[in-house]
Amino acid sequence: MPHAFRQYQDAPDHVFDLYAVNHARQTFEFVGEKRAEYAPLSKRVMSVWQAMEFLNSFVDESDPDSDLPQIQHLLQTAERIRKAGHPDWFVVTGLIHDLGKILHLFGEPQWAVVGDTFPVGCAFHESVVMHGLFDGNPDLQDPRYNTRYGVYRPNCGLDLVRMSWGHDEYLYQVVREYLPEEALAIVRYHSFYSAHQHGAYDYLMNKSDHALFKYVRSFQPFDLYSKADALIDVEAVRPFYEDLLARFFPDELAW
Prior knowledge:
Layout: H1 13-25, H2 28-38, E1 45-46, H3 48-54, H4 70-83, H5 88-96, H6 167-175, H7 181-189, H8 193-196, H9 207-224, H10 234-248, E2 253-254
Helix pairs in contact: 4-5, 5-7, 5-10, 6-7, 7-9
């Protein structure tokens, strides 16, 4: 029988605990503070491959499906995309898509790094995973933030929307100058499951968002269904991926 992914009702206690804190503390104000803190990209200077190696000690506590080191998930995703015959920009996006999780190695707690993302500054949609855990979030009681549109205008576009802080938004800020807009949409919104899986928050999205989300949706099977126990031989594939990375990125990036 195929593995059933994202089965949160049977998730380990640590997954529930992470989302309990995440949903209580991801507020409009908190996200604004974190975006300002990390905007200078002054934490470290390193290559993309070095970032992958730096991340290798990290295991995502929000993921009920896999406890493999992140470098394996990145390579499994990229290899599956490559073998499906997709263009190089798609392959390199698969390789880097979770590198923002180095936030945890910069000292951020996992609830501010991983997990499904969602807009802040407006009402939390019922499709967001473990929605009932938002009861402790102070924005839920704030009339500025607890209505359908909150601080936003209808169909304003996601560029104007603050998403919950985590690895997606952080990595987007790191790589935004180097990848095409289709790749950047995948980087920025691949954890926005309530939108790309359930169609939620369409009232905040504009025509450009809807066009780009077809790429976000096409990425999801490679992200989710690439998870497997069989390990990639890192050194065997490293030359190919280092050459690929050199086509898109400088030798070192500011993180």
